[in-house]
Amino acid sequence: MKKNVALFLRPIFFAAAALVWMSCPNPSIDTPNNNLPNEEEDSGQEIAGTVVKYSARNITFSMITVPGGIVFPAGIDDSGRETVENAFMIGETEVPYALWNTVRTWAQNRGYRISAGSVGSQQTGGGPGPFAAVSTQEPVTSITWYDAVVWCNALTEWLNAQTGTSLKPVYYYQQGGSLCKNSVNLETFVKEDEAHQFGSAFADSAANGFRLPASKEWELAARWQGSETINAANGLSDPYFCKGNSAGGAAAPYTDETATQAVSVYNTAKTAKVGSKNANGLGLFDISGNVYEWCYDWNAGGEGWLRITRGGSAYDLAYYMQIGLVGFAAADAQYTETGFRVVRAGNE
Asked: With a threshold of 0.70, does the pTM exceed it?
C-alpha cells in the first residue's frame, strides 16, 4: 500500500490551494441549446443542475449546468475564496473510451491527428486500446494534455456534423490562427506570455464549443451541494459547498472510509465504468477518483509544460480524493491514471 510520501515520487504533483483561472443516422440533442437559460438568468441558483443530453450514432453523453458569479471556498482548509464569472456546462462523467474513440476515428479522416503514437487506453493498467467492449465505458486514459485539447475541437465538429448544431471550436494554434487539429504541432507554438516557453493553444473565450475546464470551474462544480448542509464548508450558504478535505459529494472528510468509498473509485488496481459511484450535489460522477482530470490552466510556478490536474485516481489512497488538492503534470506525457471531462459555455 502506498504511503503519503509517494506524493513526491509520482508523475502528478500537488499544491494545496486553488490556482488562478486562465480565460482562456437520426442523431439528436435531447435538450436544444436554444432552450437553455439566457445570460440574464445565469447568476441564479435555479439553473444549477440542468441536464443537457447529446445523442448521436448510438453515443450519448450529458452536460450539467453550473451558474456563474457565485463565491465559493477553495483549498483543503476552505480558507480561499474564488468566483467563476460565467455560467458553464460540465460533463456528467469523465470522457469514456467509447465517446473518445468514436470522435477520434471520425476526426482522423478529416485532417485531425490525435495521440500520434497511441489511440488512448480505455482502462487503467491496460495498454493502448481497443479492448473488450465491457470496458468501453471506462474513462479514456493515456492521453496527453495536447491530445485532450485537440479532441475537444474534434468533438465540437463531430457534434455539428451529426446533429446540425453550429458550435464554434475553442482552440487555435495562435490568436487569429488555424484550428488546432494536430496535438503534436501544439508543442511547437509558444504561449503569448513569454514567461512560458512551451507550446500552448490559444483559447477563444467567445467560442461555445467543447473545451477543458479551468481549474476554478472544476472546483466549483466539484464542491457544489445546493441546499445540502452535511459536510458543508463554513461561511457560505445558498448554495452550500463540500469541504475541501473531502471527496466530491462525500458526507464526511476523506479519512471517513465509508463516506469516501460512496463517491470515489480509489485504492484499487484499475478504473471502473464511469458513473459507478454516487454523484455529488450537482449530479457529477467520479469527480474524485477513477482518473485524474486535465484542466486547461498551467502551473502557477511559471512552467508552461506543467498543466493542472484534479480529482485523484483509482491508484491513489483516500488522501488524494480531497477536492481542495491541486495537482500538475507534464502536458506531453501519457499517464495511465489521467483522463478528462469536458465543459462548454452555458449562457445560451
From this structure: yes
Q: Please count the structural domains in the chain.
A: 1
CB neighbour list of residue 52: distance below 8 Å, 6 or more residues apart: 29, 30, 31, 33, 36, 62, 63, 64, 65, 89
pLDDT tens-digit series, residues 102-150: 999 999 999 999 875 555 555 444 344 444 444 789 999 889 999 999 9
Q: What Rg do the C-alpha atoms of the chain give, in angstroms?
A: 18
Top mean-pLDDT range of 39-48, 67-76, 168-177: 67-76
Parent domain of 222: 4-345
CB atoms within 10 A of CB 38: 10
CATH number at 271 reads 3.90.1580.10
- Taking the C-alpha atoms of residue 170 and residue 193, their distance in angstroms, rounded to an integer, is 19
